[in-house]
Design brief:
Elements (H helix, E strand, L loop, with lengths): L1 H13 L3 H27 L20 H5 L3 H22 L7
């Protein structure tokens, strides 16, 4: 439940601002919906459940071709693109970096 724990931390720190409260509630809400309800929605539509953490390199068996080919193509493409392209670029451009002046 990392999204909720992180949201509580932000509210504890910045909860006196109405903007931060609304922003935190919306971010936590979207994260919870995407993380926990997407596999259930896939099952409702007759698809195999899918968790985006399948392509995190902690479980090597998720990289086997037989496992990858069982998943819907667009979700596999999105997972690879996010893991190998989008997340490193977002971390570089939006993350905290050391600035030389």
């Amino acid at each position: 439940m990392e999204p909720i724990g992180g949201g509580l931390f932000v509210l504890k720190r910045h909860g006196n601002s109405p903007y931060q409260r609304i922003r935190t509630y919306s971010v936590v809400g979207v994260q919870v919906v995407m993380a926990f309800l997407l596999p259930s929605v896939l099952q409702v539509f007759g698809q195999k459940e899918y968790y985006f953490s399948y392509f995190w390199p902690l479980k090597i068996e998720y990289f086997y071709p037989a496992v990858i080919l069982e998943q819907p193509f667009l979700i596999v493409l999105w997972s690879f693109a996010g893991s190998l392209v989008a997340f490193p670029l977002l971390g570089y451009f939006l993350g905290k970096r050391f600035y030389c002046s």
